[in-house]
């Protein structure tokens, strides 16, 4: 686990203790994006442990259904956080153009939370 990912997880715990709902929402979303990036695609999953019995492709044995996860390096984690930030900026700009300044401001507050991790 990278330093940035560890910091995100630790800050999520702190935000939960402090009941900071906005920070909790942002950090959970980013951590979910990281978890999705760590997930191994089905076509890359090893075929070891697959049974050829009555149920084709069934797994047998302890841990047979556990999938290995990718290890993301610091640059990959940072890129995901940047992508989440950029997504919010684009959405805020769109909302502001469409006449929803409060929703745009809410998204920019989320951007401010993510900016703390990209310094």
Keywords:
4 helices, 119 residues, Hypothetical Protein Yqey, Chain: A, domain1, mainly alpha
Structure description:
By secondary structure, the chain is mainly alpha-helical. It has a single domain (1-39, 70-119), classed as Hypothetical Protein Yqey, Chain: A, domain1 (Orthogonal Bundle). The chain has helices at residues 3-18, 21-38, 74-97, 101-115. Helix 2 (21-38) crosses helix 3 and helix 3 (74-97) runs antiparallel to helix 4 (101-115). The chain starts with a helix and ends with a helix.
Secondary structure blueprint with pairings:
Elements: H1 3-18, H2 21-38, H3 74-97, H4 101-115
Helix pairs in contact: 1-2, 2-3, 2-4, 3-4
Summarize this structure briefly.
The protein is built from 4 helices and no strands. The protein has 119 residues and is mainly alpha-helical.
**CATH architect. name:** Orthogonal Bundle
Number of domains: 1
By DSSP, the count of extended strands is 0
Helix content: 55-70%
Distance between the termini: 19 Å
Give the averaged pLDDT, no decimals.
87
Class from secondary-structure proportions: mainly alpha
Could you tell me the radius of gyration in angstroms? 19 Å
At the fold tier of CATH, the topology name is Hypothetical Protein Yqey, Chain: A, domain1
Q: Spell out the helices and strands N to C.
A: HHHH
Q: Major sheet: size, sense and barrel closure?
A: none
Net shape: elongated
Number of helices: 4
Strand content: under 5%
